Hints:
11 strands; 24% strand; homotrimer; 270 residues; 39% helix; alpha+beta; 6-stranded antiparallel beta sheet; globular
Amino acid sequence: MDQEIMQKVMDEVMKRIGGGSVISPEKASDQKEVPTASVQNLVGVTEYVGISEGDTIGLVVANVEPMLHEKLGIDKKFRSVGIFSGRTGAGPQIMAADEAVKATNTEIAVIELPRDTKGGAGHGSLIIFGAEDVSDARRAIEVALKDLRRTFGDVYANDAGHLEFQYTARASYACNKAFNAPIGRAFGLIVGAPAGIGFVMSDTALKAAEVELIDYMSPTKGLSLTNEVVITFTGDSGAVRQALIAARSIGKKLLGAMGAEPEPATTPYI
Amino acid sequence: MDQEIMQKVMDEVMKRIGGGSVISPEKASDQKEVPTASVQNLVGVTEYVGISEGDTIGLVVANVEPMLHEKLGIDKKFRSVGIFSGRTGAGPQIMAADEAVKATNTEIAVIELPRDTKGGAGHGSLIIFGAEDVSDARRAIEVALKDLRRTFGDVYANDAGHLEFQYTARASYACNKAFNAPIGRAFGLIVGAPAGIGFVMSDTALKAAEVELIDYMSPTKGLSLTNEVVITFTGDSGAVRQALIAARSIGKKLLGAMGAEPEPATTPYI
Amino acid sequence: MDQEIMQKVMDEVMKRIGGGSVISPEKASDQKEVPTASVQNLVGVTEYVGISEGDTIGLVVANVEPMLHEKLGIDKKFRSVGIFSGRTGAGPQIMAADEAVKATNTEIAVIELPRDTKGGAGHGSLIIFGAEDVSDARRAIEVALKDLRRTFGDVYANDAGHLEFQYTARASYACNKAFNAPIGRAFGLIVGAPAGIGFVMSDTALKAAEVELIDYMSPTKGLSLTNEVVITFTGDSGAVRQALIAARSIGKKLLGAMGAEPEPATTPYI
Lengths: 270, 270, 270
């Protein structure tokens, strides 16, 4: 009978305080699944494609209204756009967009990085694909939404901050536009928050393997006032991976010293 | 008796976890009322006028200290200022300030938009009115604090983001200063977060009615790194309202697909 | 027996909703202690020095990797760096760094202020010390981590915002680099969020004592889009303290009118 009361009270408490608000903002996105067809029908909006990790929504517009199209500043032939917009994360979305652009007949028109992560230390993201046909735009968004579960695999967070590691054997147009990654070459990205952890991870990565530094970014230099240090680098694919793995090892220890054991958002892929 | 225990436990739980912290940041402001005289006496500070929606405080300074006055860069004759400062929201505060400036003998001296919303995706606001007399400054703040309950009426939020719609039949100086709204004409504002939802709402609005786009703003273009797309527009008052209503309809469906049903902060007015 | 059930339920509730998430973000850091040697061994990373208030981590790198060193743009002789990186607070960290630079053979190489405070209204901080020898860098970080408990003493917060007051009888290189404080002179700093409270505190401070205003900063002018007004000033040490005390008195009343009584993060020192 004690048990019964307990359950009743717990249900009431959970109902009144709301599920979402008691999860740490950096982890709130873990719960989302790539939507099924039934969800899509439920929304009942032709522009809706789906949602995924990091409070990310995927949308399409078949024929962008002319005044709005002009403001975007993209080629007139791209009358359709695919929109990939997330509250938490920029790296995962950019890497997923990179796969999408490789797999479809689209171009990356816009990459803008707001300061967000729902109270966390990092970016959100707005990525717009241009396409001549709406079916191409939709396909790009579908690929990106699906791939986002993979690219969130090496995002680790606790209440004190987050770490992110990305790798591709062959960078494409999204990585090039966002990070100046040389197209067709192996590319690595390291993000650490608070920023000091990013700095030490960067130092470790560059010492661990023979890689070529593309860029070093800090809160007011190249980032949107996030509390991060970010480096991007290229090189031999083995070296790029080795640098990432070394950084990940030290980063998890340092972030873990500030709070709980940092957990990956999905399944590590590097 | 079960009921009694339940109530006792709930009271204890609510006391220990605190009211504010378990409500999603975008909704935390719902609880506030325009303060009564007794609250004001309790504060015991002559500069205090009141508080309202969106963690907004209204203040006046009768004679701004000269060094500070110079830093503000406003006309010397405005020795008094009214200060309207909110954690959550810029649009609602600007629209309320627009009514205040119409109703009083004041000018809009400063509009600055921090990145805030207490962990949400949008702006906070700092609006300073200049006045020759402190009674005018106080009156402007009183009008703005009161009108803020109305202008939060078409702000909708859930844990994933927020939507905002504003309408005035006749824009005045605050809308002009903040948004380049033509003075005396109907004016509409649409805000969507995450940004992708703002984009689709903008496209829908511009297709729904014959309105004239004033501006298109995105996270790094015209906004304070918020995760929003914002459009402003003018036109015939019926067309402006029609565009707003069309955007609101699709926006609520899209944001609702990412989380709970988006609820208005107060009572919709459009 | 009611008592027993109550306790059991409360334990369960607290376990399920998690300790961290029900504390206001501005206060979450109160729980941290300056780490002991055993913690350090637990981390097992030579770069780790310790953690302190405001989710701040202290780190050292003995020999910064050459490509990274070049990106920092600091003198080549400073091959070692000390890194002082916090999620919540810039003023407390800068004041603590000021003491560290006085006490050690180091220089302030970098001060960058992200928009952070974990969903609060203010900054985080990234401060990098340059040193010719890693033992000097380590010593600087140790001094700064320890002093941070003091400099968080006049930081007051509630769910609606925060107030900060800092004082030094003799400003050194960190205050000079971050705030243009004249070296060797008394220096005061006032921060208020939401910004309107900072404005009224600034006005009060400048009227309360004969001090010289160094700078006035607002969300988009000199700050990283925080929802704050900040002033910095110098003068006779008694006057600087008098101005700070007057501002603190009115600030606590105004912020208290918006929410709970603002509590100091540690022990007030002014």
